[in-house]
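Q: What structure does this chain adopt?
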Amino acid sequence: MIFYKVKFNIISKLTYLFLLIFFMNIVASAEGGPCKDYGECDEFKYSLNDIESLQRGASTYINYCYGCHSLKYSRWGRVAKDLEIPEDIFFENLVFDKTIKPGDLMTGAMPEASATWFGVEPPDLTLVSRYKGDDWIYSYLRAYYEDSSKQYGVNNLVYPGTAMPNVLMSLQGNQRLICKDIPIIAYNGGEKRDDQGNTLTTQKCGFLEVEEGTGSMTKEEFDTLIYDLTNFLVYVGEPIKATRERIGWYVVFYFLIFTALSSLLYREYKKDYKK
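A:
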């Protein structure tokens, strides 16, 4: 009886430990890097089962980002297969170097002199979603603004002093920092008013606004493009993430059922022990 009691205690502790690690992993994966002057990062919810979004994100990345940023832990053939793009179509439209084979790594084409050009070597972005967070990426790519004091004429609220030019400016348009009059909030949470009932305001700066007519996309279209691009980077960071999460729920369900059955079995053994 002592053996079964010890065995049950071990199983219970292992189950609780597994559940604790599982939920800690969920919380950790949801936390992104701080968004600096931008404030709270914009919430991003990835959808790795949305194949069309991933396909559009791959196209955007290869056309606008891959010239500088490699994905050296990914392979061309694996990306084409996971994104359900026929290999011949994928290589014809998205692979510009015809010497590349499906099993080759996506090492990029930026020469070593790039560190001199940009002041820092453009980093590989295979794992950027894992160490920066998807919320951070989504916010960063939408937080560029005009800054004539910088080398490339732009800066970023999420990553001030960034060395990366805004390669998507032609799509988004010229975004500027502006000031707005905002209501003064009273202690009770309402808006402060003067004796005539007019709302009291104060000027606050740091708001982003795109100059109308300077980009080829509307705000909604550009946000969708950035969503797809970020979604693709989440996939690249862990290609089996969707499968892992799906299987993980089955494992949790199994542990819950197993724990319940073990508890019932323990009660039966306990009855025999008392006898």
